[in-house]
Amino acid sequence: MARPVLEKRSRREAGTRGLSLSRRYQTIFRTAKFATGSLVGFLDTEIMVTAGTFFLYGKSSAPSSAFHSAPFILINIIAFVTGVTVAFFINESLLIRHDVERINSGYQAILTRLGRFQLILLTSNLTMIAVELLMIKEFSFPPILSIVVGAIVSFPLSYFFSIRYIWTITEHPRN
C-alpha cells in the first residue's frame, strides 16, 4: 500500500519541479513562445508570397521585372500583413494565457495591440532588409545567409519592443 503513495508523491513533485522551472526561466520560455508565433507568421508570409508568385508567373521565383509590378507588390503587402496578424494572434494566445486578468482583452484593446504589433514588425522587417542588403553589398554574402543574419539581428528588437509595449507582463509572484 505504500507504493501508490510514493508514486503519487513523485508525480506531485515532478509537477512542482516543472512549475518552478517555468518560473525560474520565465524569460526563456516567453522568448521561445514569441519565437514560435513569429516563426509561424513568417512561414505563413513565405507560403503566401510563393503561392502568389507561382500564380502570377507560373514558377516559384519572380523575374526581375516583378519587383516593379503592382500585383507582385500587392501580394507581398497582403502576405506581410496577414503573416504578422497570424503571428500576433498566436503570440497573444501563448503569451497572455495565464495573465488574462492583467491584460485587457476587450475588442478595442486587442485592435490597439495588433496595430502596435504591425508597426513594430514593420520596423523589424525594415531592419532585417537593411542588414540583408548590407551583408550582400559589403560582404558579398549569399542572399539566403543574409536573410538569416538579418532575422537574427532584428528578432531581439521585435521581441523587446513587443514585450515592452504590447504585452507588458509583470513577473509572477513567487510563493
Task: Enumerate how many helices there are, as a single number.
Answer: 5
Spell out the helices and strands N to C: HHHHH
Q: Note the gap between the termini.
A: 32 Å
Structural class: mainly alpha
Number of domains: 1
Gyration radius, in Å: 21 Å
Number of strands: 0
- SS strand fraction: under 5%
Rounded mean pLDDT is 80
Helical content class? over 70%
* Low-pLDDT segments, ≥5 res: 4-9, 170-175
Q: Give a short account of the largest sheet.
A: none
Principal-axis shape equals: globular
Topology:
Layout (H helix, E strand, L loop, with lengths): L1 H23 L1 H32 L12 H26 L11 H33 L3 H23 L10
Helix pairs in contact: 2-3, 3-4, 4-5
Essential attributes:
78% helix, mainly alpha, globular, 175 residues
